[in-house]
Specification:
single chain, 420 residues, alpha/beta, D-Maltodextrin-Binding Protein, domain 2, five-stranded mixed sheet, three-stranded antiparallel sheet
């Protein structure tokens, strides 16, 4: 990607009102910020710049590793031992806010945190940090997933034909892996992960918690259209078929890189991590599936990584200023360049380094065709229920007859509509 010119950062001032005080993250005078393992180098650089830009802050700021995917459960287990500034996924917002774990983000006497979040970020990410009308997070990224493929198996010239259709890929004559007699698989995604299982249901017009993701009574994956996808999946996405492969997204990406799999679906992060811009790896928006003789594009979920402030922190002032700095336009551009994260900041999105980058163009195109992961607390019930459905399709434990498929979907919907 193109080199990004750093934007001069402005010191941020004053803060949210402090609620209940409790020791949090570290010793008194220490402010702890969590970030993913892969982001540690960049995060430490940004924290250093924050200290230099804000000499009035005397707290010692410590960067520690914590996977954002399970941050919610870690904080819920012991909020007073958790970090002051926490990186998490947006679907954690609702349940954490409802549980009183997050500080509400407001404007203060000398700061405009809430106004800046609403003004400067993509509307989708503002929605993803909002619960019951209040803001609870500082957006950092916009995330979705795309199709990656290896030109060693599927030539780039076939991108708009074979690679644009799941059915065409699964019908392709696959080569042997190396000098063995084992055939390469054609296509894969983690059907046992609710982040990907949704694609086919959304493709046929089903919704999760309604059109805007806020109505627990509006889950309709068990309707006639949902059944059509279930029947398609039961036929095409079983392990016994050989051409389709389900696994952890990173394992699938590695299989594509090593020419054991022709194409897979995974997130934007793979380009900087697994693929590292390998010459044989190309990418495109999601392919179609054929239902009732019509090709329907798979529809991705989109979510965002966000920084939140621990409601048990006794350093909410510093924590809020730090979260705003780490998620600023300048910082997001650095995350885009160094980590391949698509920014939520609207100005950063229009920066030539993002707007003109071929990879980010594909990510933006897929984001525009995506459905945001809901924020309501009940979304926490979705992931395990979706895992059960997807895994049973792949391993063949779910019978393919209509009655069994319908019962599976009915049970799934029943789990989703249980209130929290």
């Amino acid at each position: 990607m193109k080199t990004i010119t750093k934007i001069a950062t402005l010191a941020l001032c004053a803060c949210l009102s402090v609620g209940t005080l409790a020791a949090c993250g570290g010793n008194s005078g220490e402010v702890v910020v969590w970030g993913g393992a892969e982001d540690q180098t960049l995060l430490k650089e940004i924290v250093k710049e924050f200290k230099e830009a804000n000499p009035d802050i005397t707290d010692n700021i410590i960067v520690r590793i914590q996977d954002p995917w399970n941050a919610q459960s870690i904080v819920a287990n012991d909020p007073e031992a958790a970090a002051d500034v926490i990186l998490c996924q947006n679907d954690h917002i609702g349940i954490m806010a409802k549980s009183g774990l997050l500080a509400e983000i407001r404007d203060g006497t000398a700061a405009t945190f809430a106004t800046d979040i609403r003004t400067n970020n993509d509307p989708a990410t503002v929605q993803q940090v909002t619960y019951n009308g209040a803001l609870y997070g500082f957006p950092l990224t916009m995330d979705t997933y795309i199709e990656y493929y290896t030109t060693n198996i599927f030539p780039e010239s076939l991108e708009n034909t074979l690679l644009g259709s799941v059915d065409a890929m699964l019908a392709a004559n696959m080569p042997n892996i190396g000098s063995s007699s084992e055939k390469a698989a054609a296509f894969g995604f983690n059907i046992g992960d609710g982040f990907y299982l949704n694609m086919g249901f959304f493709a046929v017009g089903c919704t999760l918690y309604g059109e805007d993701g806020t109505d627990i009574n509006a889950c309709n994956w068990n309707n006639a259209d949902g059944m059509k996808f279930m029947q398609y999946a039961a036929k095409n996405f079983r392990q016994s078929g050989g051409k389709f492969k389900s696994d952890d997204a990173k394992n699938l990406a590695t299989a594509v890189l090593n020419n054991r799999l022709g194409a897979c679906i995974s997130g934007a992060w793979e380009m900087k991590d697994t693929f590292k811009n390998a010459k044989n790896i190309k990418y495109r928006t999601l392919p179609t599936i054929t239902i009732d003789g019509q090709e329907k594009p798979l529809v991705s979920f989109s979510n965002s990584k966000v920084y939140v402030v621990n409601n048990k922190s006794e350093h909410k002032a510093t924590a809020s200023r730090l979260a705003a700095f780490v998620t600023s336009e300048s910082s997001q551009l650095r995350y885009a360049e160094e980590r391949g994260y698509y920014p939520s900041n609207k100005n950063a999105q229009q920066n030539a380094a993002v707007k003109d980058d071929p990879f980010f163009k594909v990510i933006r195109e897929q984001l525009d065709m995506s459905v945001p992961v809901p924020v309501i607390p009940e979304i926490s019930r979705y992931w395990e229920a979706a895992k059960a459905v997807g895994s049973s399709i792949y391993n063949g434990s779910l019978a393919g007859d209509t009655a069994s498929l319908q019962k599976s979907l009915n049970d799934f919907i029943g789990n989703l509509q249980s209130t929290i």
